[in-house]
Write a structure and sequence with these properties.
This protein is mostly beta strands. It has 2 helices and 15 strands.
Amino acid sequence: MRRYALLIALSCALTLGAAALQGSPDDLAPNTVAVTIDGREHRFTGPMAGSVTDIGNGLARIIIALRDDAGGVMLQLSADVPAVMKWDELHLDTRYFDISMVYKSRDLQFLIVPTLQMARHRGGRHRESGNAEKGGSSRRAPEWRALDRDERIARGRGIVREESLEGSVLFLVQRTVTESGMTEFRGTFSGVAVIPGEGKARRRVVIRDGKYRVGVRGR
């Protein structure tokens, strides 16, 4: 039964991923986000901005954030990508990239993150038992640091599973446009969020037809 449910979720996710490629954010007015969430259409034109921050280890974090105080809504999209790709056209989804969506309103809140994430070594060393003549123990970095994503998944090492969010997915397509000295992120997004339902049940919230055209700070 669980496998059947996962197949349905994957089929829906693939359909939403294809939908993320459709529609044009070029038709939006500057600093606008439009999206249908849980069957309700929204168009935001309040304070919003895009930003890019180098976070180290060859990665850059892209953030698109808005706050509508009158409507009581906060929405944020973020993606960690190789720094060399930060201004490229991006085709991302939570199955292969560290991207997320946070949404808060008066009647609905959800978070979408990758359900399978790669653990990050913080620089400390793990203690392991060793020869007593050498002090009884030794310290070394975890061996999974040298493994790529596929190897970590196959061995079950160096990964973190967000089981409570299983079934959620997010697709994001973005390009950077510079016109008349102004730089904008223009993109589309769609996905599925999993939130608590009645009792122990979980409810799926569909995000579709998402589009944004947002100025980039400091660019």
